[in-house]
Amino acid sequence: MNKQFWSLAVVAATSILLLADGCKKAEPPKPLRLLLVTGGCCHDYTKQKGILKAGLEARANVVVDIQYTSDTTTKAPLPILGNPNYADGYDLVIHDECVSDVSDPKLVESVLKPHLGGLPGVNLHCAMHSYRIGDPNDPVTLGTPHGYWFEYLGLQSSRHDAQKPIAISFTDKESPIVKGFSDWTTIHEEHYNNVHVFDTAHALAHGKQELPQKDGSVKTNDFVVVWTNEYGPKKTRVFSTTIGHNNETVSDPRYLDLVTRGVLWATGHLNDDGTPAPGYGPKTP
To answer: How far is residue 252's CA from residue 248's CA, in Å, rounded to a whole number?
Structure first.
């Protein structure tokens, strides 16, 4: 009787442990923690930060925290500046700032420190024209302060022309980031030039923009607008797009889908067919 009692007790305890383990495995993955760094010159970041947060959180199992300054200058005092540990606890940083005159090499190094250590990054529009050390038109020498930010991005850009529609064509249709996407033409947008595309970068889409000239001719700019990069010794995953000047573009479902996939790819949560990894799709009620 005593032996039978203990046998039943062991069976019951084992069942409870197995049940608890099963419940634990059934728990959904914790959301990815994203830090959106935004503010500075020339854009409606007051509204765009909310558009991005809502759009990303509706499309993937993520939580977006925001580091924002309302300062609209090219040297805006972003809360992250001078704090190399600003991204502690996050799975990815989205850079959506416009601070071309934040050019102190030590400050730029502090912004890059998490990414150099392996933290994935996503960069939107004017992030490509931020943290400039020296003349952005000058060719980059690898390893020098002038190249710090461009090496992280994988692409060097220095300017844009007048706002006109950009015809976006996806050039690597097998990439999970853009798989199944259709080419599309934006509203009037800023088209960033390509001074240099680094060997570590991989283009996913080009954009063509036609600009009427005073002599009646038409100038066509054809530049990379979406790409990935492997940054630093840890080959940190970095996704970038130069598209995204105006609120209408940022709130376009196609744009938000693209940025969401970039986030999931950079963090290793995107399937080969472009769908989110299990547990990282849109949250269900």
So the answer is: 6
| Number of domains forming the structure of the chain | 1
Domain assignment of residue 132, yes or no: yes
Look at residue 41 and tell me if it is in a domain. Answer: yes
Q: Is residue 103 part of a domain?
A: yes
Give CA–CA dist 252/48, Å, rounded. Answer: 12
Write out the residue range of the structural domain in which residue 63 sits. Answer: 30-160+193-205+224-266
Selection from 225, 198, 222 nearest residue 211 by Cα:
222
- Render pLDDT for 156-176 as a digit per residue (tens, 0 to 9): 999 999 999 999 999 999 999
Would you tell me how many other CB atoms lie within 10 Å of the CB of residue 273? 8
* pTM metric for this prediction: 0.90
Q: Where do we find the tokens 């709130």? A: 251
pLDDT value at 215 more than 80 = yes
With a CB cutoff of 8 Å and minimum separation 6, the contacts of 159 are 136, 137, 192, 193
CB atoms within 10 A of CB 271: 14
Conformational region of residue 39, where left means phi above 0, alpha means psi within -120 to 50, and beta covers everything else: left
Cα-based distances in Å from 224 to 68, 79, 243: 28, 30, 10
| Structural domain contains residue 22 | no
> Does residue 5 have a pLDDT over 90?
no
CATH code of residue 58: 3.40.50.880
Percent of the chain at pLDDT > 90 equals 87
